[in-house]
Write a structure and sequence with these properties.
The complex is a heterodimer of chains A (about 525) and B (about 725).
Chain A lengths: L10 H7 L27 H6 E5 L5 E6 L5 E8 L13 H8 L12 H22 L7 H18 L7 H8 L3 E7 L4 E8 L3 H13 L6 H17 L2 H13 L13 H4 L4 H11 L5 E7 L3 H12 L22 E6 L5 E8 L7 H12 L5 H9 L3 E10 L6 E9 L5 H16 L6 H17 L4 H15 L4 H10 L3 H11 L5 E7 L14
Parallel strand pairs in A: 2-6, 7-11
Antiparallel strand pairs in A: 1-2, 3-5, 3-6, 4-5, 8-10, 8-11, 9-10
Chain B lengths: L1 H20 L32 E4 L5 E6 L5 E9 L12 H11 L7 H10 L3 E6 L3 E9 L3 H13 L5 H16 L5 H14 L11 H4 L4 H11 L5 E7 L3 H12 L23 E5 L5 E9 L1 E2 L5 H13 L4 H8 L4 E7 L2 E2 L5 E9 L3 H17 L4 H13 L8 H14 L5 H10 L3 H11 L6 E6 L15 E3 L18 H17 L3 H5 L3 E12 L2 E12 L3 E8 L2 E7 L4 E5 L2 E4 L3 H10 L2 H6 L6 E3 L4 E3 L2 E8 L5 E7 L5 E9 L6 E14 L2 E11 L2 E13 L14
Parallel strand pairs in B: 2-6, 7-13, 7-14, 9-11
Antiparallel strand pairs in B: 1-2, 3-5, 3-6, 4-5, 8-12, 8-13, 10-12, 15-16, 15-28, 16-17, 17-18, 18-19, 19-20, 21-23, 22-23, 23-24, 24-25, 25-26, 26-27, 27-28
Helix pairs in contact in B: 2-3, 2-5, 2-8, 4-9, 10-13, 10-15, 10-16, 11-12
The chains are: A alpha+beta (about 525), B alpha+beta (about 725).
């Protein structure tokens, strides 16, 4: 779990990372067009007409696309809160919720909930007691600490007496469930998988249970699992460490800067009670969207939704994050001395996806470093051969709030990363000076957007994901289908204008890995 | 407990609101807290619609499968070709991947790679080619309005790739980087080490690209491999999407039917090793907090009678969230995020059976014990009825997902034909699944898994492990993960007695020109002062340096740079450096001083009995001047040669910097000049250092003290 959002744009970075720490949730970014958008033949006109929707009285919205080509369906649930909704002291807790959502309910995952319930309560009490003694620091009574540690360990062991391990996912898998998965991004938390369509009601009963009646059993063991995930994604991976430093340095005020996975100390202290509080605030019907694509009918989905999902809390959705990252006034640089081969990341602050200028940033990112056709690829990889990969993208680490326009470079062997970084700036300067993007380049981008859009709706789970994310973040799934129109109205000077505005030195953060100084040839050889 | 209270209240409120807001709807909300999803009736599964791809064979043997689908205005196609590692010389490892890449990046004879890059981007289309050891493939994808054009371009890169030198070099740049970084990420080290443990160093299936195997690859190698693999009689094509079948048949016929059959034999796949050496292979990684653990052995093929049973075994052992490994290692002990197993049943050849986990350094050996216990357990006793039911039903009920999208049926049909499997393979497999029992899983496990004959692979930080590696009860092999440096650019040097004699003669003459070796031998220490201009990354700055050296291994140097003074020293045992007021140990210092001594005039002239030079036939040209060249045997720097000028002087050195430092790999040339007397000897008073032909240092000697008294304290690390 804690996988990538399906439409992440920093594909290069992610491919390198193999696994990503900082989920970059980037999808169709709807924004009010500045000029009237011309009508475009999108190739998706008939699909758009097939999207049906309804909302339960508690505020939970369902999107349904009937596709009867095979007796299967996929669902994609978006909870419109993610790691950016973490707080100091409990960082990593949004992600923890994603893990706990697979722990079952009072019906599933237990052999006897009545007997289990007081044991879980005892474990929680033992943890609170242990933590409060630990908080005394050097003044803690060591004998008492040892005794509380033992009490907690015993209570933890006792609490699993009635647990039926992984029964929740076992039911899904036994039914033939595929791709059972979830991820926690900065902006959202998502749950998704596919089942044979004769299991639709079973899914409704099971999944609604996790949203209405979750039991946070094995909480502290799972916290250890999450810590292992941190070791895997951040601590033990050179690129993981670099991405983490990059994001945590880029944001000083906005919670994007927490870095998603959670601080080590928080992962060792937050409690089940705090998890339950987070769940209660964020896992409310008005903060969720469920999209279902496959061999289902709207009537049946509606009947089951009313039957099973009506009990999800109808409390108001949590407010958006009011903290805005202050304007950056000077370049920030992080250099990790590492024996690993160098990698360069540069991020410039740009507005949120809802800003009218956002499509221009996306287009500029494609033309600068989107692929083989792009300016940076041609200059650094093909012509100068000083890099083996280069990419630019928007939406890192999220898109709901002002985020980063990111440049990612893998220098060729033996190339000084700082020199390659400067060469990349020279390419950007060239676009802003002697050789602006051409109309042909921009036209190509418009065609690629159309091709990419079509490519992302073939798969049931991917289409469900696109629709649910657009709905949750922007309040209307139709925005997914509007991107081609917004793109059509872009002009070359729009791209130049946003680059000129944002890609300035004082607005950027640079993070790179570089060989340790001890192995550097600091002294010229010879003459001895 | 708050959650349960809240849930109860929410359910109560929901029940109340039922009457009000949902009264008019047909569905009745229920109390999910009292609802067990397992007890719901399961309707019969819906019918899987029949999908019938059309098959056609061109006269030259190209097999074509077609399936129309007009849901989206897209067409995508793939072609499979037989391949075998036996087509790749072991000293060209890396050739298949490079050839596939350059088929696309270099484009075809008619349309070059740069044109494809721009044009495909402009129409939102893509082309690809990929050559793996066991199979090659190539594919396209486009909007249906461009189908004819893209299929044309696709046929060109498949049939007539250009393999331009420039794109071969570009691909090599990428390969060099991937070789250089292969010890960076723990996971890549883990699976590489596992693969080496299973295949051994000799089996072609385990071949791995090295600098030495990549550098010699040229266009002729690509052309040769392409010619044996991309041939019409072994091409199976599948095309799916928004076209009319009749049109597509015409188009493919036009693009491929005139392709002449090759005279090549179908490649034969080499045998896999039949067993592995039961050992613990340990690869060290210092910058991690977590270890990677794999238990591995050779697996089996998908057409093996045990395939269905092994699929169920994989699911139950480590295939999902409800598997034994996931439950026991992750959920119940919190020891890992990742834990699982792979049955190792490949289509083309026996795969690799693997059970793996990642755990914090401090629980490495504990977790290894758990993984091995789980693997052993499935060979000793059957799954319980409940375990079998869960694992088997997961596979059986998930079977329908083989038909989720109509294109799967199409591409599967083409793939089965390409790998020589019967068209009804999947149906036979399904029947096999139905027959799987706990007993048949156990019997398959006994046949296919030998816990006592498995390799264990661990990557991690040994110092933090809970127990010694030896505690696993297996012989421990510490794997050398160092990356072999690029090959000698000098090629093979003929070390004949005549060449050695000539080398000695040149050196003796140079020593004589510099005052004679006896005079040089009498010098035991020096203090050398220099002024130099350093040009680096487009900037130049001046350096004033002073180096004190008590031969051979005690050295102290200080350099004044515009931004401060740097010192470094080695006292014969320990090294240190200081820069900008920061003092630190320098563990590399000893090796650096040894390299300095290795190529110092003091050693060459004063101790020429320790030096062996092999005179080479070809002169080396530096900046327009030809120098006589002799290779230094056993030199610490790679490809080290000594340059001699026409007047008999030692003119300098040239060697390969293999790129371990910040500067990266380069051919370094040091040139000496302005020989002038210093006491009893002649010493060069100018030095220039070039990297890959660019001048980096332009320096002159401003002072030289011979046999100066040097205090031992000078070399010692100062107190902070």
């Amino acid at each position: 779990m804690f996988r990538l959002p399906p439409r992440a744009k920093l594909v290069l970075a992610l491919a390198m990372a193999g696994a990503l720490t900082l989920g970059a949730a980037a999808w169709a970014a709807p924004a009010p067009a500045r000029r009237a958008a011309p009508a475009v033949r999108t190739g998706l006109e008939s699909l758009e007409k097939q999207v049906q929707e309804f909302t339960l009285p508690n505020g939970l919205r369902f999107l349904v696309v009937e596709r009867h080509q095979a007796p299967v369906f996929s669902f994609f649930t978006v909870v419109n809160s993610g790691s950016a909704n973490d707080a100091i002291g409990t960082t990593g807790i949004a992600h923890m919720m994603e893990h706990m959502a697979f722990k079952g309910t009072s019906q599933v995952g237990t052999t006897d909930y009545a007997a289990e319930k007081p044991l879980i309560a005892a474990e929680e009490k033992a943890w609170e007691a242990l933590l409060s003694e630990r908080r005394k620091g050097p003044k803690a009574d060591s004998a008492r600490l040892a005794s509380l540690e033992k009490t907690f360990a015993d209570a933890q062991a006792a609490s699993v007496r009635f647990v039926a391990s992984n029964e929740f996912t076992q039911i899904v898998e036994q039914a033939g469930g595929q791709g059972v998965n979830a991820f926690t991004a900065e902006d959202i938390t998502a749950y998704f998988y596919s089942l044979p369509s004769n299991r639709l009601e079973m899914w409704a009963a099971l999944f609604s249970g996790a949203m209405v009646d979750p039991v946070f059993r094995e909480f502290y063991k799972e916290r250890d699992v999450v810590y292992e995930e941190r070791r895997m994604r951040v601590e033990s991976s050179p690129i993981g460490r670099l991405l983490y430093e990059f994001i945590t340095t880029s944001f000083n005020a906005h919670p994007y800067g927490f870095g998603g996975i959670g601080y080590p100390s928080d992962l060792k202290t937050f409690s089940r009670t705090q998890g339950e509080e987070f769940f209660r605030r964020n896992y409310v019907a008005k903060n969720m969207t469920i999209a279902i694509v496959g061999d289902v009918t709207l009537a049946e989905v509606k009947r089951l939704a009313e039957k099973y999902f009506s009990a999800i809390s109808d409390a108001p959705a949590p407010p958006p994050i009011d903290t805005v990252e202050p304007v950056q006034i000077a370049e920030r640089r992080v250099v990790i001395e590492d024996k690993a081969q160098p990698i360069v990341l540069v991020g410039w602050h740009i507005p949120a996806a809802s800003d009218p200028s956002y499509p221009a940033y996306e287009a500029a990112a494609d033309l600068l470093g989107g692929g083989r056709w792009s300016r940076l690829y041609k200059a650094l990889v093909k012509d100068k051969k000083i890099a083996v990969q280069v990419g630019t993208g928007t939406g890192n680490p999220g898109e709901k709030y002002p985020n980063l326009f990111t440049l990612f470079i893998v220098p060729a062997s033996g190339q000084d990363p700082e020199k390659v970084e400067q060469e990349a700036y020279a390419v950007i300067e060239d676009v802003l000076g002697a050789h602006p993007f051409t109309q042909d380049e921009l036209n190509g981008y418009k065609v690629r957007v159309r091709a990419q859009k079509i490519g992302s709706v073939e798969d049931n789970v991917e289409l469900a994901g696109e629709l649910a994310q657009a709905q949750a973040l922007y309040g209307d799934w139709r925005d997914y289908f509007r991107e081609q129109e917004r793109v059509q109205s872009l002009r070359v000077e729009d791209l130049t204008a946003v680059l000129r505005e944002s890609l300035v030195r004082s607005n950027r953060t640079v993070a790179m890995t570089k060989a340790p100084a001890a192995t550097a040839t600091a002294t010229p050889e010879g003459g001895r | 407990m708050k959650s349960t209270t809240r849930v109860a209240v929410a359910a109560f409120v929901a029940a109340l609101s039922l009457c009000a807001s949902l009264a008019s709807t047909a569905g009745a909300a229920i109390d999910v807290t009292k609802y067990d999803p397992r007890k719901l009736p399961v309707p019969a599964i819906g019918r899987i619609p029949a999908v019938k791809p059309e098959r056609m064979v061109l006269p030259n043997g190209v097999v074509v499968y077609l399936l129309e689908n007009h849901d989206l205005p897209v067409v995508k196609g793939a072609a499979y070709f037989a391949m075998s590692p036996s087509l790749v010389p072991m000293d060209r490892a890396g050739l298949p991947g490079l050839t596939g890449e350059v088929m696309r990046s270099g484009g075809s004879v008619a349309h070059g790679g740069d044109y494809l890059d721009d044009h495909l981007a402009a129409i939102g289309a893509s082309l690809s080619a990929n050559i793996a050891l066991g199979q090659a493939s190539s594919g396209f994808r486009c909007l249906s309005e461009n189908t004819a054009e893209v299929v044309g371009l696709w046929s060109e890169i498949v049939r007539t790739p250009a393999f331009p030198d420039e794109k071969i070099e570009l691909a090599k740049v990428g390969l060099r980087r991937s070789i250089a970084s292969r010890n960076d990420e723990m996971m890549s080290m883990l699976f590489r080490t596992a693969s080496q443990a299973v295949y051994g160093s000799k089996n072609p299936w385990g071949m791995q690209a090295e600098y030495a195997t990549v550098e010699p690859i040229g266009k002729a190698d690509c052309v040769a491999l392409h010619g044996k693999v991309f041939v019409p009689e072994r091409m199976i094509v599948a095309v799916y999407g928004d076209f009319r079948t009749a049109d597509m048949k015409k188009l493919l016929t036009a693009k491929f039917a005139d392709w002449k059959k090759s005279a090549t034999a179908a490649p034969v796949l080499p045998a896999m090793p039949t067993s592995v050496t039961p050992k613990l292979y340990f690869a060290p990684k210092e910058d991690v907090t977590q270890s990677g653990i794999v238990v591995a052995q050779v697996g089996s093929r998908a057409n093996d009678p045990d395939y269905a049973a092994m699929s169920v075994l994989e699911q139950g052992l480590g295939g999902g969230f409800s598997s034994r490994m996931f439950n026991h290692i992750r959920t119940q002990r919190g020891l890992a995020y990742a834990a699982g197993a792979n049955a190792g049943t490949d289509f083309l050849k026996p795969g690799v059976f693997m059970a793996y986990t990642l755990t914090k350094s401090e629980s490495t050996m504990t977790a290894l014990g758990l993984v091995r216990d789980e693997v052993r357990a499935v060979t000793e006793s059957p799954f319980t009825d409940a375990e079998l039911a869960i694992a088997k039903q997961a596979v059986v009920n998930g079977f329908v997902f083989n038909f989720e999208d109509p294109s799967q049926t199409l591409f599967r049909a083409a793939y089965y034909e390409a790998v020589g499997y019967p068209a009804d393979f999947l149906q036979v497999y399904q029947k096999g699944l139905d027959a799987v029992t706990a007993q048949s899983v156990l019997e398959a496990a006994k046949r296919k898994i030998q816990p006592a004959q498995q390799a264990v692979i661990i990557v991690g930080k040994e110092k933090d492990f809970d127990r010694p590696l030896e505690s696993a009860g297996l012989p421990v092999e510490r794997v050398d993960i160092s990356i072999p440096p690029p090959p000698s650019k000098l090629g093979k040097v003929a070390e004949t007695p005549a060449a050695l004699a000539k080398g000695a003669e040149w050196l003796a003459a140079a020593a004589k020109a510099a005052g004679g070796s006896a005079a040089w031998k009498g010098i035991r220490s020096v203090v050398l002062s220099t002024d130099a201009t350093l040009s680096i990354q487009g900037q130049s700055f001046s350096i004033t340096g002073e180096e004190s050296w008590l031969f051979p291994d005690k050295q102290h140097s200080s350099q004044k740079l515009p931004f401060g003074e740097m010192k470094q020293a080695f006292d014969g045992t320990n090294g240190w450096m200081s820069a900008m007021g920061q003092l630190q140990d320098n563990p590399e210092a000893g090796a650096e001083v040894a390299k300095d001594w290795d190529k110092s005039l003091w050693r060459l002239f004063g101790h020429s009995d320790q030096v062996q030079l092999v005179a080479l036939d070809k002169p080396e040209n530096v900046n327009g001047t030809d120098y006589r060249v002799a290779q230094m045997k056993g030199a610490k720097a790679a490809d080290m040669v000594v340059l001699f000028s026409a007047d008999g002087h030692l003119a300098g050195f040239a060697y390969q910097d293999t790129g371990s430092g910040r500067m990266g790999p380069a051919r370094v040339v040091e040139l000496f000049g302005a020989w002038a007397p210093e006491g009893p000897i002649q010493y060069p008073h100018t030095i220039q250092v070039y990297r890959d032909g660019k001048m980096m240092v332009d320096g002159k000697v401003t002072g030289l003290k011979l046999n100066a008294e040097l205090s031992a304290d000078l070399f010692k690390k100062p107190a902070q």
